[in-house]
Design brief:
Layout (H helix, E strand, L loop, with lengths): L6 H6 L11 E5 L8 H9 L3 E6 L7 H5 L6 E5 L4 H6 L2 E4 L9 H8 L3 E3 L1 H8 L6 E5 L4 H15 L5 E5 L17 E5 L2 H9 L6 E4 L7 H4 L2 H13 L6 E4 L12 E4 L14 H16 L4 H8 L10 E6 L2 E5 L6 H8 L7 E5 L9 H10 E7 L3 H8 L5 E6 L1 H8 L8 E4 L12 H16 L9
Parallel strand pairs: 1-2, 1-4, 2-3, 4-5, 6-8, 6-9, 7-8, 9-10, 10-11, 13-17, 14-15, 14-17, 15-16
Antiparallel strand pairs: 12-13
Amino acid sequence: MRIIKSKLYALLLQTPMLKLRDQKVVVMGLGRFGGGIGVTRYLVQQGARVLVTDQLPESKLAQSVAKLKSLPVTYRLGGHDHEDFKCADIVVVNPAVDPRSNAYLQTAIDHRVKLTSEIRLLAAALPDRNRVIGITGTAGKSTTTAMTGSILSACHHTGKTWVGGNLGGSLLPHVNEITAEDWVVLELSSFMLEGLDEDHWSPHIAALTNLSDNHLDRHGTIDAYAVAKQSIFNHQHAQDVAIFPPHLNHYFTSFAQYKPLHLPKATIPLLVPGMHNQINAHLALLVCEQAGIDRQQAIGALREFPGLPHRLQLVVEHESVRYFNDSKCTTPSAAKLAMDCFEPGSIHIILGGFDKQADLTDLAVHASDVCRVIYTIGQTGPAIAHAARSGKAQVVECETLEKAVAATTTRIHRNDVVLLSPACASWDQFTNYEARGNAFVSLVLNYSGEGFPAPLK
């Protein structure tokens, strides 16, 4: 880390602007859901000569390609070519791709091609780093980012509020609309932060929600993962603000103004349930106070915050039974947090999915202690069911989400909660967690709409 001793030194640490006009830029990864669309549009606007390359064939990328059809873009689909990476001036890398283990990016590195990413281009293009808030952490960063954006949108009246990064669509095509009066709130993953660290960039207000094991397949150890997260504070200066829980000060340090994140002493009326959302809200309030927002006005704005899709999203309440879509929950720790939001013995939880080789025993035991019924699906379903059978909860092996939702209808009681919080990725049966969540919502609305199939006990 570096101590900033002067404004001049702070300026030296600003993200460097890459020259883009007339540069040959390779966008690595368009994606079926258009993850590369925003950066491609921006690059064309800046006068770059753009080649988009993706491992998937054109037939699977048709929707994404169609959104760029009017732009002068060259495509190489159905596989990458090392020659493209040798001849490029710049390669735009998806943060999820690790340059240390990717052969094509190693080719680019060997030929001294510059690597960057969408978030690095955005950081360099923003008009004022002092109006940027960055939020990271293992869990809760998306909700905290959205809460912060919601408060600022409601309470900041001298400019707009822009929310982006790991949450939402690309801000790059809109960067010319962002003014020095606006606030920009960014959710930043550990992968994004690694790249920003190379550019010596940290946000003016930097906040970390928490830290637990995650992405160790890439980072290797919890310590290495923490080092990546530390990057959000590395390049702050004395006038900046750093926020993180005090019990993590053996991992994280900052030379900015430190504001400790303590557990809330009082609850805030929220539409989203759970103590973890109280903590998220408390962090959002603390962040917004540093941005000059009155606390009571901010609390008023939070009362209206509806939550994010697929994150403990209340789908419907039908005959005193509430149905929650928490499909974004892909880790055991997040699933346990979700269960702990509700009255023990009232929960019908749907668990399981793609097998990432995580130990699910603790999760299964916890679920068997606090849930009324456990419904297991996907590759990990049998292992979860086996580990949960020693507890109090009834265990129903369902294989599919459709069967699980159907199975709840004959087992629910009034005031129960039906919770999709799978603790696993979705890739065994769904394209992504959004598709899984949307399927759950559709099934629930079908069952709770016309002709609900079973009377409540």
